[in-house]
Structures are given as structure tokens and as C-alpha cells.
Amino acid sequence: MKTSDIHCWIVVNGYLQHDKFSSLALFIQAAAERKKIKATLMRNSDLIPVIEKGVPLLKGAFGKLPDFVLFMDKDIHLARHLELLGLPVYNSSSAIDICDSKAKTHQALAGHNIAMPKTVFPPFTYEGIERADMDAFMKIGSELGFPLVVKESYGSFGEQVYLIQTEEELLRAVRHLGHKPFIIQEFIRHSKGRDIRVNVVGNQVIAAMQRHSEIDFRANMTAGGRAQPYTPTKEEANLAIRCAEILGASFAGVDLLFGEDGPLLCEVNSNSHLLNIYECTGINIADSMFDYMLDNLGKGRASNEKASRLADL
């Protein structure tokens, strides 16, 4: 099958009406077209997963199913349903689900010799049920010391990450978050206002940038950070690749902190924003993503070269 005969869906969220996300979708679609792939942008709101008589079905005005799906959303149920229909989905629903939660990410990486900040998982409560007893959080504060970092498990662009200076601030933050899932981490002073974004595809680092901010403890560009191209050390590259591998992510934007004794894992993004690193480095990660997916499906250049070598034997 020629790549011109291959059809993919690029699934995006139908409710995110923002230029940042629409520009990203078009950027990715253009990369597919450069590979001669017919790529259709599909909104999750136009695809309705149904189970009827125990059989998974998909409702919507879409014609035939594609050969594979590039899933640029976090609609886990839809991603899993597409897999139930037998479609190759990148990233997989399980990888998206784990990476979407900072808590799940850190627990999935535990026990694999992955360097990361000391992380505490606070006691769960139900919606509408306040934590009347704050002893556990006072102990956590004593354990980690101040300042410390509170991170909502679900959030993007650093907007749900808080630097906490005192016990009083910590208790106030806990009350404010209520039943939302979150984690509490030690503050890595050595990395204040700076981090590394490493984009991994397959088992390779494709591009990296260092982000830094002089006005915020977070280095995210949406929080005022700036970026410059960066060449990761062998230790940093291996850490990023290993994290993506453990989490089952075919491609990922892996954020690393500068620890005093070496790099530390900050988080893993299954759907990283590719435009920022393209503008910083000039490297189009989407091109590498489609190369990887085609090879994984046995329809890419590397697969064809392998088949040719086998035919010559």
C-alpha cells in the first residue's frame, strides 16, 4: 500500500475553540500531507462511542474508518473505544490516561529507578466533604519542608501548580482544592524558573529546548518563560526515553528538572504542544511522529527497506 492510499484521523477536542489548538491541528495535518497521507481532522464531539448488544460501535457522519488514528485529545473513553474497534491509536488510551494525571505518572514510574522529586499522595476526600482534620497535611509539610509544591493531578501549561511558602498557605490551598486530586512535592531550588523539554519519538530524542523564567518559579512559556534550543546530556536523554518507554508512549514531551545531582523527572506529556518547540528549534516533531507511525504499521520507509532486504535473501 502506498502512503497516498493511507487514511488517518487526527482527533481533536470539539469544544476547545482557541487559535492555539486549531493552529496545532493544522500544523499536524500539514505534516501528514507531506507524507502523502490523507489526514482528516475529526472532532471528538462528532464521534459517538456506543455499545449495542454488547458490541462496540461508532456513530457519526464519517464514512469508512481510517487506517490509524493520531489522538490529540484526552477523551479517554473515545480513544479506548477506537481501540476496541481494532484501530491503531497513537498514543494509546492507556498512555494518554496515565500521562494526563501527574499522580498516575509518578506512581507508574515508581520502582523503575527513575529520578524524581520526593512526592507525597495526600489523603483522598469526596466531593462536598471537607477535610476537618489537617494533621496529615501538617505532617506532610514537616516532611517536605517549605517552600513546597502543590500540583493538581490534572492540568496543563503549569497553570495548576502552586509554590507554597508556609504551613498556613498549604492548609489554605488544601481547603481550596477540596476533592480535586493533587500531589505534593519537594521544591527543587536548583531548578527554580528553569527546566528542559525533551521530545521523544519511539526510542529517540528528536528535539529539546531549555525553558527559563526570571519572573516565576515555573518555566512554562505560558507563565512567562522563554526557550532556547538545548542539547541534552546522555543522562538527560536516557531518562526521557526511559520514561516514555515505561509509560508506553510512542511519543511524548518529557519535562526534566535540574537536580543538584542530575536530572529529575517533572512530568510526561502525551500530547505536547509541538508549535513551541518548532518555533524554538526549527525541528518539526510531527514529521518524525508520522514516520514512526508509518513504520510501526509496516508502511513506512524503514519497513519497506526491511522488506526489500528480506526479499533479496
Which descriptors would you attach to this protein?
about 325 residues, alpha+beta, Rossmann fold, Dna Ligase, domain 1, 4-stranded parallel sheet, 10 helices, disordered C terminus
Give the total of beta strands.
15
Give the name of the CATH architecture of the largest domain.
Answer: 2-Layer Sandwich
Domain module tally: 3
Helicity level: 25-40%
- Please compute the radius of gyration using only Cα atoms: 21 Å
How far the N terminus sits from the C terminus, by CA atoms, comes to 22 Å
Q: How is the main sheet built?
A: 5 strands, antiparallel
Total of helices: 10
What's the mean pLDDT score?
92
CATH homologous superfamily heading of the largest domain: ATP-grasp fold, B domain
Instruction: Examine the coordinates and then state which fold CATH places here, giving the name of the CATH topology of the largest domain.
Output: D-amino Acid Aminotransferase, Chain A, domain 1
Q: Report the uncertain regions.
A: 306-313
> How much of the sequence is in beta strands?
25-35%
| CATH class bucket of the largest domain | Alpha Beta
Backbone structural class: alpha+beta
Structure, explained:
36% of the residues are buried. The two termini are 22 Å apart. The chain is of the alpha+beta class. It has three domains: 3-90, Rossmann fold (3-Layer(aba) Sandwich), CATH 3.40.50; 97-114 and 190-282, 2-Layer Sandwich (D-amino Acid Aminotransferase, Chain A, domain 1); 119-187, Dna Ligase, domain 1, CATH 3.30.1490.20. Strand 11 and strand 12 form a beta hairpin. It has helices spanning 19-34, 76-84, 93-100, 102-109, 135-144, 167-177, 234-247, 274-281, 285-296, 301-312, and strands at 7-12, 38-43, 48-52, 55-59, 68-71, 89-90, 119-120, 148-152, 161-164, 182-186, 194-201, 204-212, 226-229, 251-259, 262-269.
